[in-house]
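input
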Amino acid sequence: MKSNLLITLIFVLSLSAYAAERTQIANTADDIQPLLVGHSVPNTPIWTADGKPVKLDKLAAQKPLVLVFYRGGWCPYCNFQLNELKSVEQDLLKMGYQLVAISPELPDTLKKMQKERELNYTLLSDFRLEASRAFGIAFRVEPRVTTIIKQRYNADLQRFEGEKHDNLPAPAVFIIDTEGVIQYSYVSPNYKVRLHPELMLKAAEVALKGESIRFSP
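output
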């Protein structure tokens, strides 16, 4: 009995240590520790383009959720991905999903971008990086890279994000069921690599069929 109790205690402490480490901002994109399939969606607040707080677990409870994290509208790879999402949006809606894209940019920036680029799916702001940290995908950007981003893309991360930090989320896609459980995840430390829309559709289809399946962390 004592042995079982000790094993359980070690397991719980290990999970707690993992959770604490995961929510810290990683030193590099290669050091991130994303949430895994079977984990529950964090209930940290994020913000609509109108500046209203919303929680992802409440959002997911309404409809299954395809959640896309991207770096910002200044990033050409992100812009390409956002445009590609248009091609699968209707298919996802027909399956019963809602499509949401999250970046560290301020709500006002997202509101302007959504109108200019005619994006029908939802854009949410994680300007404090609370959601990115909770999902384990936030990392520090090297000063050298921050300078390159500013010079090449005319993007001041602190100005766009509204916070005094130079941190970003790694590009990621999470598919979440109505119980708030992650059924699929794709995370790329390489910002140039994104999940292909057709693969996203396939993953969404499979996740729906297996929505009642649960995985132990």
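quick obs: The beta strands are 45-48, 53-55, 65-69, 98-103, 122-125, 138-140, 167-169, 172-176, 182-187.
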